[in-house]
Amino acid sequence: MNDIVLYIGIAAAVLGVGFFIWSRISTKKTLDRVEELIDKAIEGDTFQESFSEERTSRLETKLTEYLRASGVSALNVKNERDKIKTLIADISHQTKTPIANLVLHGELLKESDLNPEQEECVDALLRESDKLRFLIDALVKLSRLENGILSLTPAKESVSSIVTEVASEMRGKADKKGLYIKTDLPEEDVKASFDRKWTTEALINIVDNAVKYTQSGGITLGIKNYEMFACITVKDTGIGIAEEDIPKIFGRFNRLESSRNEEGVGIGLYLAREIVKLEGGYMKVSSKPGEGSEFAVFLKKE
Amino acid sequence: MNILEAKGLKKIYGEGENKVNALRGVDLEVKKGEFVAIVGTSGSGKSTLLHMLGGLDRPTEGEVIVEQKDISKLKDEELTIFRRRKIGFIFQAFNLVPVLNVYENIVLPIELDGAKIDKEFVEEIINTLGLSEKKEALPNQLSGGQQQRVAIARALAFRPAIILADEPTGNLDSKTGQDVLSLLKVSAEKFSQTIVMITHNDEIAQLADRIIRIEDGHIVSKVEGR
Fold first, then answer.
1. Which residue numbers of A have CB closer than 8 Å to B's CBs?
2. Of A133, A135, B123, B224, which is least surrounded by CB within 10 A?
3. Does the pLDDT at position A155 exceed 50?
4. CATH of A155-300, one of 3.30.565.10, 3.20.20.140, 3.30.2270.10, 3.40.630.10
């Protein structure tokens, strides 16, 4: 009699332990599955909804519903991107003609007899049209870069050659202001990995900025060669930037008090920095008011 | 959105005659994704400030708020787990575990937390920091610069809320230091990582989006961010 009780007791204990272990394993499996779903959601992945009576199936359905509502799924992102792409193309395309007409008529007007006041007006009109064209151009480029519509194609290129190229391209503008543009390049040809066209554009924006804010003296372009990065330096003898203003100069449309007199829209440096960032590099500035500034563009070598 | 905030931080060491006022009421705000440099001379309080921000030490007065959570109120055990999950550290002395290879050192914080390793992400970090050839190497087989790069990878791998760097190039020569800093900067950008770095060197600080100057336990300049 006692034996039977003993056996029942042992069987119950074994069953109890067995149930306990099974329950733990089952819970772990469910939690693992839930974690997997959330991980996929974080990555923006869509996941296959399974349709079963399991609790996790209900969870999948709810999660899918939530994602759809909050618009984070990859499909939503793609749709948004396509909308932006169309908008950008429209803006770029449709504004070309009106602006070209503005410039055309402005120039025609300039050719007729005008009194000094009228001439000043026309000059202002032409200047602003130019700014507008530059602005739209820069914004379109930026938008395309930021939304991955255009991408940079970095390749092994000669840093020395784009520095020389930009220096000669900007020399005309600098000459008009009586400023020099010098290059101080190392003997060996320094190479790095970057997109030639876009990086040249970024560098032009930086040198353009330097020319704008330098009244006397000039600009020196140099190259510093490190092991994993190559650095292009643009040093000017201009008005300099106060430390608290340095973070702001890269801001989108930001213009400092000290620069109010100059023509510009405040997007050149922002675009330059975005380009360099997308190439896996970065920019830094050192400057003191009244002592000029040095912009440094770091490009990856690999 | 501020990922880090400090309000009225004060820290006093010692008592009576030996009392040291390391921090005298510091306020600070850091937005997600920013790279902030805290610059000060030796004894200015910058290291103390960093220890407060990372939960390595408790302030005498004031609050440290990370991801909207006041960490100065956490118990010791909670603080340890908080640090492990939310804060990445990069020290001047690289502090790699000598018996683990590069890969193992990098994933150590993740494994300690019992979390799953995102292999692709870790590979990407290793590539960005130029360490792909050295995954199996031991710390004593690496140069100083390489070791610090491993330390940076380790801090990035578990995607902490903030990375705190204390004079990261202090033990490196200037050329290597520049490369290491450049890598820190570009990988922070790439992985949208918030970084707070302390240094006494202005040139190093220029890499940051924003510079905060500290002197004698006080913030002496408030430079606005991007």
1. 35, 226-229, 243-244, 246-248, 250-251, 277, 280-282, 284-286, 298, 300, 302
2. B224
3. yes
4. 3.30.565.10
